Amino acid sequence: MNALPCTIYVAFTGAFLALVAGARSAQAARVVALLTALTLWGLTLYAASGFVPAAGLQDLVNLPWIPQLGINYHLAADGISLTLMVLTGLAATTGVLFSWNIEERTGEFFALYLSLIGGVCGVFLSADVFVLFVFYEIAIVPKYFLIAKWGSTNREYGAMKLVLYSFAGSALVLAGMLWAYAASGGQGFGLAQLAMAAADFTRTQQLGMFALVFTGFAVLAGMFPFHTWAPTGHVAAPTGASMLLAGVVMKLGAYGCLRVAMPLFPVGFEFFQPVIAWLAITGILYAGFVALVQEDFKFVIGYSSVSHMGFVLLGLAAANATAVSGAVLQMFSHGVIAGLLFAVVGRMVYERTHTRHLMDLKAMPLHRLIPFAAVVFVLAGLASMGLPGFSGFPAELTILIGTWQTKPLWALAAAGGVLVAAAFTLRAIQVSFFGRTGPDVCTEAPHPLPPITWPEKAGALLLLGATIYLGLCPDTLLDWIRPALHSPVFQALLSGGPS
Amino acid sequence: MKMDYAGLFHALQPEAHLVLGALLVLAFDMVWARHRPANRHHVALAIGLLSLVLAGWKAVATGGTGPVFGGVLMLDTLATATRVGVVTLAALAVALLPSPARLRHPAEFVAILLCATTGFTLMAAANQLLIVFLAVELASLSLYVLAGFDKTRPESAEAALKYYLFGGMAAAFLLFGFSLLYGLTGSLDLDMIAAQLSMRGPSPLLLVALGMVLVAFGFKAAAAPFHLWAPDVYQGAPAPAAALIASASKLAGLVVFTRLLWPGLGSAVGTIAHVPITVGWAPVVALIAAASLLLGNIGALAQTNVRRLLAYSAIAHAGAMLLGVIAAGRLGPGPLFYYAATYGLAAVGAFGVLSVLEATGPAQKLTDLAGLYKRSPLLAGCLAIFVLSLAGIPPLAGFFGKFAVFAAVLRLGGLGGPVGWLAIAAIALSAVGLYYYLLILKQALVATPAEDAPAVKIPLPAALALLTAAALLVVLGVLPSLVLGIF
Q1: Of the candidates A14, A250, B339, B370, which lies 20 to 30 Å from A82 by C-alpha distance?
Q2: Does A468 touch chain B (CB under 8 A)?
Q3: A41-58 pLDDT per residue, tens
Q4: Which ipTM value was assigned to this complex?
């Protein structure tokens, strides 16, 4: 466990080294980035191997930082953090592999990429709200440059929109957090400390603070109606960044809701619970239907991300041990699957055909030209639909079962989303890869398509392996997550007892 | 009053060093350097830097000895910190001395800059109305001259004239307000004034006096609605002068303002932390702060000129700093000082980058920055740090400054009164701010350079100044206790 804080330092050091190496050659920067990501992932796996599940956060570092304001550099982790750290390591590594073809300003690309990862790791490990917020904001700015410089369609618009939404969200969090700090008498920002002080807040204060902090984090989690940054941002981003954005950055929002907003302000949560649930269900259905009619291949995936994140928020809103553990599992599962889908669309298809328009792709027999991409996409699509054998199945099923225990109507409404997901995924598969089949299909593209390279194959196999492994033994992660939910802060929040 | 001339001279050592430096730089130039044009700049720069360093060292060595000369000056922690702060900012600004082609009289420029700095260090310690007025005017008159120093451009003359006219008006307001205060209390000493005022309570005349003083400081701090001079002056003045106006002048002005309002007029503060509001200066300051935050942030959105954009951002920052002034009474001046000092560092840095760029071509429009990353990676990297600090992105100092000030303001009374809501509004407006700061960085780091854009050569003093400012922003941002701990 004590290896986890090193991931933050490794990421930032790697970012600096990639910048230096990039001044010499692009290849050096790539190698540095890959080694950094592998080290980071290795550290998380090493921490996981020695992890003893327990209720509550296990302290990693706790040093006084700004004593004048009662702020400590306090890092801690439990099974939920660990799950997301392993996901971050995996996403970072595969993201580097799928960014192998970045030729322009490679060093700077990977420097920004790795500082984004560093910020993400910091958020997942913070046990002091101030520290969490600092890392959360560190993760915002690199996104702008990653998209605005290396992105595609409408990139400057997409980048600015994404960053302003994130920053506005973080401003809400800051406002709520400072309000809570002031109301608690300016003692400090420790999670446990604030949770204790929050018990004495008035009902109005609890409602106000919860609304600010939860909305702030939910913006980043892509909650309807604050989701519009996600599709445009994901579409504009370069593949590696899309994978990170959908894979881990959206999880920051959901994690913030679970770690900060809900345990600190249980009264506020109880009041807003139905609102959140219905917004989540609306998001699932609305984004699913929108994905059904998209003409841009990447937009289909972008909206599918919003739809799947709706399940995470629904699981959180249902607030029982089953649903919340399903939500965390879905965070991991969606991180892997979304990464895979963006990798196929953004890297394997778009970089070769130079179009993402579904009608143009329909005219090309892609399943013959790049069969590897077709196979990966079909498998990823099946996983995304929630078929048994892939990680999406246990995750969404657990959420739906848990939600049923709280309110059957919510579960029924959300189950419709699974059908919509199947519809838009099947349509995407059919139109993009199998647009033209039959004996008369020509086997030539308008221009020759380069073969799939080794980093793409390696990255795809890693992600596929992860989703299949989790589909077969989801208990690996659930055994970490469930004990974490037994901690007093979560027990006070969750109904229905431990699963 | 106890006339302790030895103590006075001891306390004024930094100022003495600055004035001597100013005389020396002029004398040396007249006797020796003007006949050696190749070295003229270097000599002026070296003497200027030397006297600034000595003054800073003396300020630290003198330390906080309490009231001086019967309370005319107050040497407390805040005064010492501010003296060191303004001297550091002035040293960074003087290192940006324009090239000989653009500045024909470097010695005069440095000498006047040192005079302005003398004004700032006096402002840091002034504890009597007359000294406050003299210090403010010494600094202002020097700054008017500095703003008009670039004789090759009519914009510089325009800047100086506008600054002078607005500043002169503000001085009249300040003097009128002070004379009313003197008439009310019969004293110029802030301590005596405070004692008198706490006995008699608010009166209409006091409110008029307060109004005059607030208007004057609104002008000086470029707070809305008295901000109209700022964009033109920032646009036209030579870069080091603009840097000084944006940084050291602001820090010193806010400190003297805080000293005047809190110990001096503390009994007339009024309440805004809780409903109902009572009359006093705090509600007015809060109104000025709100107007500045709103107008600065919205006005900056429409700018296409970098310097005007920085001016509007300065107006917005002035609003946030005025919130810090309100909070300084109960929670100490630490957050305010941290905010103003680190804002100054970022502002000097941003103007420094523009000043280096001006040597190779125009550096006014946002598009003039296009492709800076290719023309000079070092400059682009520094600019990124300065602008992101202005935007308040951690781990840079600008973030913690905002955080500390807003936390202090909310601790006054939570959301129970208008000032708490103002802090929330300021946080929301910082999201607006990020938009225009990113516009600068988009040009510098993302846009491709023009075909004929030459590579940028950074003079050594400017490079050192920029690196120092950037390093300080990072270090103070990661370890804010270094500054907060001294209060």
Answers
A1: A14
A2: no
A3: 999 999 988 888 888 888
A4: 0.92
